[in-house]
């Protein structure tokens, strides 16, 4: 990659992101914890098992139906910790603000960040504020990092993913990406389409308490469900087969995607969770999820198979199988 | 502050920063840990006492004599943890990169970040890479967050600062700010002036091992020694009197400051530590510091007094006392 330049796709969470991380970041930072490539790093300090994660938020525009960059900055980090099998506890919040940014907007964002932190039950304990000249940032960027305590008797790792397991998705796809896209480009969408941005740690705690045998969790943000499952299939060396008819998709989201040429399986979500579990626990897990406000539409969307390791397929309504490959970049950049 | 706009000074670490944090951030995030306003938050998880901190780095230019944004991003966070009385262990690294950024430069920055992490003995365990359009960031910004284990039998807090204590500074002032300024504006400086950017956790561990009674530590970055001491004097409700003749200042730095109108006491350092200690321990502390590569020029620069609580004075070489007040903003923005 030397002699080349950064492109938007390097931040998409897709194949270009993977290549950048594999060729530049991993060789330099080489260590076992980072190499797991899980969004939440598992660390141990003084016999206490923690999870630690970070995310920068560059969403454009800053305000969108269903949320804003402040809410997103909390939910993104809280959900990464939850997906690592941890109970999120403490967050940092660091702001890079452009000169000339209206303080009332900052105040609104900060209040929404705090409201999300309260809902998630986490505390913002440290922060930083930097200001750059007008034109040197696009309004405001936020970074959050988070620490959580790993749950005992729970092991979330791709190593536990094996053929026969069910893949459960907690609800409808594509809402976040479409809501941000519509706000950015001035597209009119049905009022029912707004960001699903939500802290999922409560849902995940209920899930892991009822079924500690869950082997893998992942929140399908940048790159969507298809990219998340490709990563897991590749790391676990298993095949994945989804059932198109089982994928929870609102008719209006399906219609907008059809119209604009988006595949909802590649669109970012900010309030959804994927879970891998042995089929014997599926019924118990679904019943727990259905009782939670963020899991009411949970269902099994597919299965882990022993065939075609590393590949993700979609059995279409017509009965054929379509390959869901890893895309180079994201059709909608700056979605989170 | 409503109806107003963000200005560069709001990111200076000076009075405008304080006002922004006091009027917007603290009321929203209101909690005891954040309210301590220490750069490293002290938290407890499962009986393990940790420190947690975050910093975004927006230094301009990205490369400067003595370091670059990668080295800075590690040292800044490591030093905040050390100043909280903790042993830094794990860091996150999150990049916001502008489209078109040369990948060889990213590689250089990442390698320098890792070299600093290795020197400091910390591990980069989690990260994030976002890309924004050309013009939406100034090359590249880095956020690091860090976790450390608090040392037992050590309590670093402004509550322990009291009249009679000595104030020790670990070395020469102003090098970092001048090196960055010279590179940014194309000013020729003597080759001896380069950034002091360094991880100080080894030095601080030696200091706290020898003298666990140290009551306060602070790395004087944005706003320099004068701003750091103003914050401490205000929080501890004590007076501080510095001796101009005792302040370690290279003649060439003094000359450049005189020429350009900078006060070195307000310039950012990235490899210096301030320590407050009862006078009976001063000799032992200095002898330990003098044996460390980053503390060779340590000396007592002043004293805590019971007079003029909240104020910092400088006894000049002529014998008068000059007030070192808290400035509204920084003369050199984007220094870290």
Structure explained in plain terms:
Two copies of one chain form a homodimer. Chain A is of the alpha+beta class and 336 residues long. Chain A folds into three domains: 1-30, no CATH class; 42-148, PurM-like, N-terminal domain (60s Ribosomal Protein L30, Chain: A, 2-Layer Sandwich); 158-323, Phosphoribosyl-aminoimidazole Synthetase, Chain A, domain 2 (Alpha-Beta Complex), CATH 3.90.650.10. Helices cover 31% and strands 25% of the residues of chain A. Chain A has nine helices and 14 strands. A seven-stranded mixed β-sheet of chain A has the order 9-11-8-12-10-13-14. A five-stranded mixed β-sheet of chain A has the order 1-2-7-5-6, covered by helices on one side. In chain A, a hairpin with a 5-residue loop joins strand 13 and strand 14. At the A-B interface, helix 1, strand 1, strand 2, strand 5 and helix 4 of A face helix 1, strand 1, strand 2, strand 5 and helix 4 of B.
SSE inventory with pairings:
Two copies of one chain form a homodimer.
Chain A: H1 15-29, H2 32-35, E1 41-45, E2 48-57, E3 63-64, E4 67-68, H3 69-83, E5 86-98, H4 103-120, E6 123-132, E7 140-150, E8 166-169, H5 175-185, H6 201-210, E9 216-218, H7 224-236, E10 239-243, H8 251-260, E11 274-277, H9 282-290, E12 299-305, E13 312-315, E14 321-323
Parallel strand pairs in A: 5-6, 10-13
Antiparallel strand pairs in A: 1-2, 2-7, 3-4, 5-7, 8-11, 8-12, 9-11, 10-12, 13-14
């Amino acid at each position: 990659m030397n002699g080349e330049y950064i492109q938007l796709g390097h931040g998409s969470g897709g194949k270009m992101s993977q290549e950048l991380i594999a060729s530049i970041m991993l060789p330099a930072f080489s260590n076992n914890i980072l190499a797991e490539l899980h969004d939440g790093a598992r660390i141990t300090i003084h016999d206490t098992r923690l999870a630690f994660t970070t995310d920068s938020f560059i969403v454009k525009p800053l305000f969108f139906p269903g949320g804003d960059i402040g809410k997103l900055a909390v939910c993104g980090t809280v959900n990464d910790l939850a997906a690592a099998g941890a109970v999120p506890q403490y967050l940092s919040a660091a702001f890079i603000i452009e000169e000339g940014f209206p303080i009332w907007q900052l105040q609104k964002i900060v209040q929404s960040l705090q409201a999300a932190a309260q809902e998630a039950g986490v505390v913002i304990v440290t922060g930083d504020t930097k200001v750059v000249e007008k034109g040197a940032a696009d309004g405001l960027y936020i970074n959050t990092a988070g620490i959580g305590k790993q749950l005992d008797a729970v092991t979330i790792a791709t190593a536990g993913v094996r053929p026969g397991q069910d893949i459960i998705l907690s609800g409808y796809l594509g809402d976040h990406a479409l809501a941000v896209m519509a706000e950015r480009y001035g597209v009119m969408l049905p009022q029912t389409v707004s960001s699903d941005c939500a802290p999922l740690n409560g849902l995940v705690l209920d899930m892991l308490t009822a079924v500690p045998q869950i082997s893998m969790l992942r929140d399908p943000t940048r790159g969507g469900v298809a990219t998340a499952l490709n990563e897991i299939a590749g790391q676990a060396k298993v095949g994945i087969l989804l059932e198109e008819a089982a994928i929870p998709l609102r008719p209006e989201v399906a219609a907008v995607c059809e119209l604009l040429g988006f595949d909802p399986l590649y669109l970012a979500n900010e309030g959804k969770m994927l879970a891998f579990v042995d089929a014997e626990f599926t019924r118990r897990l679904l019943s727990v999820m259905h009782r939670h406000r963020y899991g009411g539409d949970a269902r099994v969307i597919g299965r882990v198979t022993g065939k075609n390791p590393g590949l993700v397929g979609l059995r279409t309504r017509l009965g054929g199988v379509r390959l869901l490959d890893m895309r180079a970049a994201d059709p909608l950049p700056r979605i989170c």
